[in-house]
Structures are given as structure tokens and as C-alpha cells.
Design a protein that fits this description.
303 residues; alpha+beta; Rossmann fold; OB fold (Dihydrolipoamide Acetyltransferase, E2P); six-stranded mixed β-sheet; globular; binds adenosine-5'-diphosphate; binds magnesium ion
Length: 303
């Protein structure tokens, strides 16, 4: 189990993270979400041992994670960290980058393992390509495969699919997260993309103003968001009598006590998102077609 106990940290006098407490079970996938600047990357770096804590402790099983003041070489063999900058060797091939830290005394094993990981990140067609000739998203995939090469017990991923285009993203997410689950690798993912979280995280943490404001399953946080900030992570929502409703929980009807005025319609694929004004506030409703700007509507809440 990973244990974070009463952790506080700031780069300067100002605290970035204050008194965090949480645990992550072995083999679990934990998502860390929060606005830009909320401290997601900082938290991953602290877990990795990149900085000294101002206060608190971090343990992986019985090992206390130490920062640079107490540890000559940053990091531990059981933990890998894929940062937002991936730090690869540009002049050697994809497979050589991945296999670089595997023992050359077991060439067959090394080749098998490298092949397996090239497949996990779906880079079979580029195995022999020099990394300098890859796109940003392809480099990101090499960095993930390299982190997995020596079978870490725990993997820290910082916005792991941020550079990867939408054509590839979904299948890559499934491939990587399924691989981690199958191999019992504990995983902590910092993300601002709900698609990294919804189908994959066992639990999620929401960071806001130096604190954890929620820790629960994606299911619970989606269905009963305790604050607009949490709802905003999942989608467009409206506040009606201080309650939060997603766009699909409201419905346009012939008659009701709720009246609004259409502002704009946005094509969503399956439906349209109607932006309207209701009591001087923005209101979002899913609808099967676009509506004329300025037209009056009535809406209801779907139970
Ligand atoms: P996130 O990953 O959620 O966007 P970060 O952890 O990168 O947030 O940043 C949290 C806060 O710490 C921000 O206010 C950021 O400006 C500050 N910060 C991040 N890295 C450094 C650094 N190396 N030195 C000083 N301040 C930093
Ligand atoms: Mg970050």
C-alpha cells in the first residue's frame, strides 16, 4: 500500500499542498484531478522522492520515500515516473530506448520483453525508428513503455495521453491501463481529462486550494458531485435551486414552471448542447436538434 501521511509542501513560503492524507492499495488505479496549477505534478514528484517534504511522510509498503536531502540517487527501483517532459534518447531507436535498461545478458528475454511493450503502446510500426523522428505523442508512448520495461510495482503517470491524438487515444488508454491491471501494477495518474478517469480509475482525488476536497470512486463523484468544481470536470452542468444537474438531466418540454432563453446550440455528435439563460445564469440542456438563438423554452428536470 502507498501511504501519504499529513503531507505539506511548498516550493517557496507559499504552500502548494497542505496536510494531505490518503492511501492507495496495491494494484489500484488512482486518478488525481484538479485545475491547472492545483499541484498534481508536484504531488507525483513528491511521491517519487524528487523533493524533500516540508512536513509528513510517504511510505510504499515498509519503505519510507526519501527526498534528495536523504537519498543520494533520486528514485527507487520499485517505482517509475513518466513526467510531462519525457526525457528519451533521441538518436537511438524506439526498441533500444525501451530495452536500454534491461540486462544484455539475457538477449532473448530482452527482445521478448521489448516486443511486448512496443505492442502495449501500439508502436510496432515504429520499433526501428529513431526517437528524434517521432511525433510528440509517439515519444510519449515510448516513455510509457520504457517506464514499464523493468516491471515497476508502482507507476506514476503525469497527463500520460496529453500529446496523443484522438484517433489513437482511446485504444491506447485501454491497452496501457489493462496491462497495468493484469500485471497488478499500482498506478497514479494525474489528469485533467475525464476519459482518463471514468472507465479506468478505482478511485479519484480532487485537489483544490492545496487540499483534497474529495476522494471517492468515479461513479460516486460523477453521480453526486459535491461541488460545481467536481461536476465541471465531468461535463456541462447547471445550478438550479443550488442543486447540480448535468445537461442530460434536463429536458426541453412544452410547458413547465422553468423558463429559459436559448443562447446558442452546439453540435455534440449524438445530440446538441443547448446553452440558455435561466435566472441570469448559464443553463445547459441536451436536445435532439439545434434551436434558434433567442427563442424561449420551457424545461424540466429528469428525475
Ligand atoms: P498542476 O500539475 O496541477 O498543473 P503543478 O504541480 O505543476 O500543478 O504546480 C502547482 C503550483 O506550484 C503552481 O502554482 C506552480 O506555479 C508551482 N510550481 C510548480 N513547479 C514549481 C517549481 N519548480 N518552482 C516553483 N514553483 C513551482
Ligand atoms: Mg502538471
Amino acid at each position: 500500500m502507498l501511504q501519504i501521511k499529513n503531507l505539506s509542501f511548498g516550493y517557496t513560503e507559499t504552500e502548494v499542498l497542505s496536510q494531505l492524507d490518503f492511501t492507495v492499495g496495491v494494484g489500484e488505479n488512482l486518478a488525481i484531478i484538479g485545475e491547472s496549477g492545483s499541484g498534481k505534478s508536484t504531488l507525483l514528484k513528491l511521491i517519487y522522492g524528487e523533493y524533500d517534504l516540508e512536513q509528513g511522510e510517504i511510505f510504499w509498503k515498509d519503505t519510507k520515500i526519501l527526498g534528495p536531502k536523504f537519498n543520494l540517487v533520486i528514485g527507487y527501483d520499485f517505482m517509475k515516473y513518466v513526467s510531462q517532459e519525457f526525457d528519451l534518447m533521441p538518436y537511438i531507436s524506439v526498441e533500444d530506448n525501451i530495452g536500454k535498461f534491461l540486462s544484455r545478458f539475457y538477449p532473448e528475454e530482452k527482445e521478448k520483453r521489448t516486443k511486448e511493450l512496443v505492442k502495449v503502446v501500439e508502436l510496432e510500426a515504429f520499433a526501428k525508428t529513431k526517437v528524434k523522428n517521432l511525433s510528440g505523442g509517439q515519444k510519449q508512448r515510448v516513455a510509457i513503455a520504457r517506464a514499464l520495461a523493468k516491471a515497476p510495482e508502482i507507476l506514476l503517470l503525469d497527463e500520460p495521453f496529453s500529446h496523443i491524438d484522438n484517433f489513437k487515444k482511446q485504444s491506447l488508454r485501454r491497452s496501457v491501463f489493462n496491462y497495468l491491471k493484469q500485471n497488478g501494477i499500482t498506478c497514479i495518474v494525474a489528469s485533467h481529462d475525464k476519459n482518463d478517469v471514468l472507465g479506468f480509475a478505482d478511485e479519484m482525488i480532487v485537489l483544490h486550494h492545496q487540499k483534497i476536497i474529495a476522494k471517492d470512486t468515479p461513479d460516486n463523484l460523477y453521480n453526486t458531485p459535491k461541488s460545481p468544481l467536481i461536476a465541471a470536470f465531468f461535463g456541462e452542468f447547471s445550478l438550479i435551486n443550488d442543486k447540480i444537474y448535468y445537461a442530460h438531466q434536463l429536458k426541453i418540454v412544452e410547458q413547465s414552471d422553468f423558463k429559459a432563453t436559448v443562447k446558442r446550440s452546439y453540435f455534440n455528435g449524438q445530440t446538441w448542447l443547448i446553452e440558455a439563460r435561466f435566472n441570469e445564469q448559464a443553463l445547459f440542456i441536451e436536445h435532439h436538434n439545434a434551436l434558434e438563438n433567442g427563442s424561449p423554452i420551457h424545461f424540466d428536470i429528469i428525475a
